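Appendix B. One record, verbatim.
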Amino acid sequence: MDVLAEVLRVSGARGALGVTLKAGGTWGLWLDASPGAALHVVSHGTMWLHVRGEKPLQVGAKDAVLVPPGTAHGIAGGAGVRMGSCDREAAARSFGEGRALRLGSAPVQTEVIVLHYEQDPEVRTPVLTSLARPMHVTARQNAQLGRTVELLTAELAQPQIGTTAAITSIVDLLLVQFVRAWLARHPQERSGSWLGAMRDPVVRDALACVHAQPERPWTTETLAAATRVSRATLSRRFRSALGQTPGAYVTQWRIDLASVRLRDTDEPVESISGAVGYASAHAFSRAFRRARGTAPGAYRSRLRQ
């Protein structure tokens, strides 16, 4: 079970091209908080990332930095530049016309590709939403990421048949490669986020069991047996990595799966309850009401309205 792939699939974590920036001279742009994560990929030159309360971060050519959802931030040509607000209408026009958004003055010294990643709001299992601070990966740390950046840059520079499909695939690939590179290079940030939990082999194996067979009657004891550790060890490692018990995570994932199926299918509640691991529709309805504040049927009706 590829846990990351499965969670990205169910959570609907999908990327989209925002805009390409070409900047020179003194320039700066402040981006207000938004529901999705932002990935800034520097294809040429140098950019500085500004987040309130943190030291400005220099991002070099072929580097990338992922900014957590809901994080207001600025991008600029220097560490002490005053930043103006983003003209979203101008950015939208540039995107619609297939041209770069120009900032500052000529000549162009920096080129930045801005990508957006959003997660299905009905899925509560945190992937991108659990990140506490920006994640920075350099081209020096990961050559594969650098090559993918080059591929994306080439597609944008010379659009042709199939470019839209190619860019969509490359954007999704960038997220996976970025996560791989970050996990490999940031062992000190193992705790505190869903992505960081992937570095703990015990927690990762337990998650693989849950995601491969969510319908099984998992308990902390059976998960510990499946991962060949003691119940106490699994509980301790799970809470350290994810801040919750194994049982709480199992429930959360089952309710996420059920929420998506309630919205996207016409399956009866009884069928969904069994598919996600509940012995009866009554037990499922009780758990679902606790998690979402409403009964499954009412939840389905509200979303479809």
